[in-house]
């Protein structure tokens, strides 16, 4: 496993964040770290994503930070410039994958069927996002693909406190991703105590 893969494997759950105000990013990172999830996948679904990553990185140089929903080379550049450890994309885009590889940046692209897994393997990838996990067949689909392919998966999309343990019990699962412990409204309204409770709940589930 690479260093990033080892860290994902240890953390087990990656909070997937869409942050609309980058000035809240450092505080959000602090709440995540202090409550047991020292990691964030900051999605490029908001315009403030790169600045949010920069603010988290400045405040917590050792935090594991990924860029999510990365769809093109420009966003890869922005993510690298902001200081990410890894890049995540919802789908398998060979152009984005190749670009990350050229830049020496770890990428975890999304797949949800055998053909995509094989295309990703052909490009040398060993850890893939299984997205959208629940809508694509959930744990049953994951187990079926895991029986065939020697890769690790990061299921995301519909993972929740109800099913996260079932996903993590599959031996090919390196970590799960999810938004449920970082709801946008709690971030927007700076409701850090409530957020801390949700994060602690996750840390409790995976302990
Ligand atoms: C993602 O961005 O990876 C998914 O949209 C997260 O899915 P969730 O909201 O069901 O956790």
TrEMBL record:
GO MF term (any one):
2-dehydro-3-deoxy-phosphogluconate aldolase activity
Catalytic reaction(s) noted: 2-dehydro-3-deoxy-6-phospho-D-gluconate = D-glyceraldehyde 3-phosphate + pyruvate
Pfam families assigned: Aldolase (PF01081)
Pathway(s): Carbohydrate acid metabolism; 2-dehydro-3-deoxy-D-gluconate degradation; D-glyceraldehyde 3-phosphate and pyruvate from 2-dehydro-3-deoxy-D-gluconate: step 2/2
UniProt keywords, alphabetically: Carbohydrate metabolism, Lyase, Schiff base
Q: Which InterPro entries match?
A: Aldlse_KDPG_KHG, Aldolase_TIM, KDPG/KHG_AS_1, KDPG/KHG_AS_2
Broad class of enzyme this protein falls into: lyase
Quaternary structure, from the entry: Homotrimer.
Q: By what name is this protein known?
A: 2-dehydro-3-deoxy-phosphogluconate aldolase
What species does this protein belong to?
Answer: Grimontia celer
């Amino acid at each position: 496993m690479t260093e990033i893969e080892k860290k994902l494997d240890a953390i087990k759950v990656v909070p997937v964040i869409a942050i609309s105000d980058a000035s809240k990013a450092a505080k959000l990172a602090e709440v995540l770290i202090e409550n047991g999830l020292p990691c964030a996948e900051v999605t490029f679904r908001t315009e403030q994503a790169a600045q949010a990553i920069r603010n988290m990185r400045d405040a917590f140089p050792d935090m594991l930070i990924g860029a999510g929903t990365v769809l093109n080379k420009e966003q890869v550049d922005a993510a690298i410039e902001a200081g990410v450890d890894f890049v995540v994309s919802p789908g398998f885009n060979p152009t984005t994958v190749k670009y990350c590889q050229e830049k020496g940046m770890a990428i975890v692209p999304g797949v949800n069927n055998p053909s995509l897994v094989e295309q990703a393997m052909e490009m040398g990838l060993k850890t893939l996002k299984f997205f959208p996990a629940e809508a694509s067949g959930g744990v049953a689909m994951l187990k079926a693909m895991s029986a065939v392919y020697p890769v690790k998966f990061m299921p995301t999309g519909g993972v929740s406190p109800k099913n996260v343990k079932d996903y993590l019990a599959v031996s090919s699962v390196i970590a799960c991703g999810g938004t449920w412990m970082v709801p946008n409204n709690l971030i927007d309204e700076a409701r850090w105590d409530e957020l801390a409770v949700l994060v602690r709940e996750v840390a409790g589930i995976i302990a």
